[in-house]
Amino acid sequence: MKAARLQVAGVVAGLVGVWAMVAGGCANEQQQKGHELYSHYCMHCHGENGRQNEGFNWSSMPDPKPKDLSNKSEMGTFKDEDIFNTVSRDMKDTSPGGDKIGDDDFAVPTMPTFKYTLSEDEIWAIVGYVRGLHGMKMEFKVEDRKKELAAALQTAQGKFDQAKQTYEAAEKKASDEAEKKSAELKKDVEADESSYAKELAAMGQAKKELDAAQAALNNFSTRPGKGVNVARPDLTVKPEQVAEMVELGKRLYANKYGCNGCHSIGAEGGKVGPALDRAGFRLNGTWIYRWVKNPQAMKLETRMPALGLSDADAKAVTMYLGTLRAPKPDAPTDKPAS
């Protein structure tokens, strides 16, 4: 009997060891993913260890400079969700008279959003890695989040199925009544659509909720812009509107999408991306529009994220970049020997 108990204990201990290895393996895999994503998308501004003035682009960026991610006394005041919401958000127009910005909104244009570039799972991996830079561990349970999304989808599916069934029953009732009246009056009678309009609207709303739940689950593990090509835009503008559009694009460039954090015009701006002094000469308008809408669709591993530009914003930024036509820099000349 004692031997049997020892054998069972050994089996349990072995399973616990396997579970620990699996959990540790998942944690290590998530950490490695976070490291790779951070290195690709974040390190040029935040530095390898998250310290200020460590990234090669840090000193070129306009104020405010990127936070010191290694500073536990400051970073420890943020919840995991706060860091996530900074990395995954909609960009705000910080111009006077621009977007309304609440006290809790993060609105530094030169810190890009990755909401439209990375999956939710990938963004959580970055959060976990950033936590490690200041000696903390992420407490947010990513697997629980995935289960929550799956359960929400199941609930939405059940709600839609019920709404569809109710709608079909109401439609059939109206159709049967119309058919009965047709027989009585001996002429065609249309079904009264108003009698099941409420059920039709409820089904439509349930379908929207189902689609949203499906998209949320898809976005957990799949990049939102993957495989999405941007249609060729109509860039025609009435002559009297050109100046206004260009001015809007200039404002959005700096104050909403923070393009100057990575690109330079003249002596001002970052050096992650190419200088844009001569963008109007070098780049086609249609190409610019499609690029700023979804860079990954045109170059999969580009460091530039999709920033969630609306069609109107993309058109305005395209118009502004088209005006940048600086002359070619003078070629260096060899001075004659004295």
Sheet with the most strands: spatial strand order: 1-2
Percent range of helical residues: 40-55%
Regarding quaternary structure, what we see is single chain
The end-to-end distance, rounded to whole angstroms, is 102 Å
Query: β content, as a range?
Result: under 5%
String of helices and strands: HHHHHHHHEEHHHH
**Average pLDDT, all residues:** 91
Biggest sheet details: 2 strands, antiparallel
Shape: flat
Tally the beta strands: 2
- What structural class should be given to the helix and strand makeup? mainly alpha
What is the gyration radius calculated from CA atoms? 28 Å
Which runs of at least 5 residues are low in confidence (pLDDT < 50)? 8-23
Number of helices: 12
Describe the structure in your own words.
The longest helix has 44 residues, at 142-185. The chain has a two-stranded antiparallel sheet with strand order 1-2. Helix 8 packs across helix 12 (311-321). It has helices at residues 2-41, 43-46, 72-75, 80-87, 120-133, 142-185, 197-221, 242-255, 279-282, 285-293, 295-298, 311-321, and strands at residues 264-265, 268-269. The termini are far apart. It is built from twelve helices and two strands; from the N terminus they run H-H-H-H-H-H-H-H-E-E-H-H-H-H. By secondary structure, it is mainly alpha-helical. 54% of the residues lie in helices and 1% in strands. Residues 8-23 have low confidence and may be disordered. The radius of gyration is 28 Å and the shape is flat.
